[in-house]
Specification:
Layout lengths: L7 H13 L28 E3 L5 H13 L13 E8 L6 H14 L7 E4 L2 H11 L4 H10 L7 E2 L2 H7 L4 E2 L1 H10 L2 H12 L3 E8 L4 E6 H5 L4 H14 L9 E7 L2 E9 L15 H7 L5 E8 L15 H30 L3 E5 L15 H16 L16
Length: 403
């Protein structure tokens, strides 16, 4: 979600120093043998996730099932018989998630916010996703989360030198884990499970550092197990998806492979994608035909919790400054690539594509600290952006008609 120091330059300096130090020790773990990496499953929940870009029969079957479960009240046929399926993808962006939270509230008040068939999230988007998925009744929870949370609610700093020499991160996310526990309880899990049984789907993304791949988690299927183990896994996925590597420790998941228990190491989903819909796990248009849902048309909505460009500023000639600027440029180019990928997905499925980003005239809060007053200002900017339109863009940046 964010970095734990007074400025982002602190983490870059530490990462640079780490590259020059020989590690004194590594923390113990029991990784999956390389030859079994893609066979590993969560014990008792073998079908709740899939690796991006690989065949995912279980996820495909589950989406086909969703078409049989859904209510015509949620997804009615239009006058011409076409069923519209709105999908929502929530990006990363740390404290900038306040924009998305405000936007959702404003969208609710316009009376045009639909019931979403699919909701996805990575990083701060994963923290928002369950509430966006459950609908307007949870707008207030998002408002509280993004306007009252402080840095102390998210992380505690560790000794930088000890973290570099003997640890796996520069800060502890124990406070964030407790914050997630406070907002995601058994009652919320039951609501997600109920929405899943009614044919709607909630996905989150993490990155498995061992396979170096993006993992999509079927959160509604997990919620459907309805026990303490399911609740703990649900919370752990949200924590993993918002655990920025180096700044925050990776999250270990117990898995089973080859008849033995092992662990996987997962970090923030933004490492692979800042936003996603289904990561190529299945082709929805063919499933609509198989379920007899034709004609069907999708509406893909993307909320980008960030800005695409920044005003020009000179870069000091130093290792630290060059590293900071390079990371910034890389992050901005990543979301552009993600938008083009999702646009291509939409075009292939004859879907409508809509995305919104933070107006470049809005001054963004400091990403390195949770400041409730600054986040409240960004929440109000998102709220007003929705009330004013919302002014959706229908093509990626740089493409004619996309601005």
């Amino acid at each position: 979600m964010t970095t734990p120091f007074a400025t982002f330059r602190g983490i870059v300096a530490c990462a640079t120093l780490a590259a020059t130090l020989a590690a004194c020790s590594a923390l113990p773990r029991n990784p999956v043998p390389a030859g079994l990496a893609y066979e590993a499953v969560v014990p008792g929940m073998p079908d709740v996730r899939a690796h991006a870009g690989r065949p995912a029969p279980a996820m495909e079957r589950d989406y086909l099932l969703s078409l049989r479960q859904e209510s015509p009240d949620d997804f009615p046929a239009g006058p011409d018989g076409t069923i519209r399926y709105p999908h929502l993808a929530l990006s990363g962006g740390g404290v900038n998630g306040a924009f998305g939270a405000g936007f959702l509230k404003g969208w609710t008040e316009t009376g045009t916010r639909p019931v979403f068939k699919i909701v996805t999230g990575v990083s701060t988007g994963a923290l928002m996703a369950p509430f966006a998925f459950l609908g307007p009744g949870h707008d207030e929870a998002l408002h509280r989360f993004y306007t009252t949370t402080t840095s102390g609610d998210v992380f505690t700093e560790r000794s930088r030198m000890m973290a570099l020499m003997r640890g796996d991160a520069l800060a502890s996310t124990a406070p964030l884990a407790r914050l997630i526990e406070r907002y995601v309880d058994a009652a919320l899990l039951a609501q997600v499970a109920q929405a899943h049984r009614q044919g709607r789907r909630l996905y989150m993304g993490t990155v498995d550092l061992d396979t170096r791949s993006f993992v999509v988690w079927n959160m509604g299927m997990i919620a459907g197990h309805g026990d303490e183990r399911a609740l703990a896994l649900f919370r752990k996925i949200m924590l993993a998806s918002s655990s920025v590597p180096i700044a925050f420790p990776p999250v270990l998941f117990e898995v089973e492979a080859g008849g033995r228990r092992h662990d996987e190491m997962h970090v923030d989903g933004f490492v692979w994608a800042n936003v996603f819909l289904n990561a190529g796990l299945f082709q929805t248009s063919t499933l609509y035909e198989r379920a007899g849902r034709g004609p069907a048309r999708e509406d893909i909505f993307v909320i980008h919790n960030g800005q695409l460009t920044a005003p020009p500023a000179s870069t000091p000639r130093s290792l630290r400054a060059v590293a900071v600027r390079t990371i910034d440029v890389s992050a901005r180019s990543s979301i552009v690539g993600d938008l083009y990928r999702e646009y291509a997905f939409a075009r292939r499925g004859n879907a409508d594509f809509h995305w919104i980003t933070i107006d470049e005239r809005v001054r963004l809060p400091d990403l390195t600290a949770f400041d409730p007053s600054q986040m409240d200002g960004l929440y109000r900017a998102g709220y007003q952006a929705a009330l004013d339109g919302p002014a959706w863009r229908n093509r990626p940046p740089g493409m004619s008609g996309g601005e």
